[in-house]
Amino acid sequence: MRSWIALVAAVGVLTLAAGCTDRESGEATPGSSNTSTSTPDGTSSDAPSGSESPTVEIPPRPRDLSLDGLDPCTLFTDAQRAQLTVDDVRSKEASGDHYKGMRECDLEKATQEPFLTYSVIAATNEGVEFWLGGNRNADAKLISIGGYPAAQFSTKGVDTDCVVAVGVADGQHIQVEMTPWSGDFTQDDICQASEQAAEMALQTLQTLK
User: Fold this and answer.
1) Which of 67, 100, 107, 137 has the CB geometry, 3.0–4.6 Å to 122, for a possible disulfide?
2) pLDDT over threshold 50, residue 38
3) How far apart are CA 6 and CA 62, in angstroms?
4) Which of 19-23, 27-31, 45-49, 50-54 shows the highest mean pLDDT?
């Protein structure tokens, strides 16, 4: 079962990361800068030089939280794992082309229904603006997780996935996706679960820095 889960998850990431030439309308507004900016209090926005320009203005982070060398499995305490009702946690390297070799954690509920997996990637190759540029194969919107700018997105035309990416430093984000393998989950349910896990990961990360 685990090998099948890993294969399906990898396909999902590859589908989302694929480029798309159509720019979506909606909450996004053009005109954002493509360079990192600093605020008077020393914080910075999530738009490093050389990254894809977002179509919305990304607010500054409270402070930078580097993911360098981080195992994302350490972002979930025993209490948080119990709250997510997961029974197996595995650290590995991401296999998708876009995040290949980066640290990933799979938190699985595999012993009782509903079966599900939380996949958490410590993405160190791009900021959250990657998903807000309007040129990806994803419907995305800007949200906030714990005061940090985040993108919530799903594959265009698909209502069975929902991913949350939290911009924690220049060119870095925590990416969280809950994938159900059984049970009756709506896309709103999946989004709420992904957001909850992202909030937990961010809370723990702040205690480590």
Assistant:
1) 67
2) no
3) 34
4) 50-54
DSSP-derived 3-state class of residue 149: strand
Q: Of 187, 139, 185, 142, nearest to 161 (Cα)?
A: 187
The pTM (predicted TM-score) of the whole model is 0.77
Residue type present at position 169: A
Residue with tokens 């999530």: 46
74 is written with which tokens? 């350490």
Chain Cα centroid distance, residue 167: 8
CA 81, 86, 90, 91 dihedral sign is: negative
- In the chain, the N- to C-terminal Cα span, in Å, equals 36
Look at residue 201 and give its three-state secondary structure: helix
pLDDT of 52: 62
Q: Three-class SS of residue 122?
A: strand
- 48 neighbors 69 (Cβ within 8 angstroms): no
CA-CA distance, 98 to 173, in Å (whole number)? 13
Distances in Å between the Cα of 158 and the Cα atoms of 62, 99, 103, 139 are 33, 22, 27, 9
Domain boundaries, the chain: 2-19+26-208
3-state secondary structure of 163: strand
For position 209, what pLDDT does the model report? 86
* Contact status, residue 73 vs residue 89, Cβ threshold 8 Å: yes
- Phi and psi angles of residue 8, each rounded to the nearest 5 degrees, phi first: -65, -40
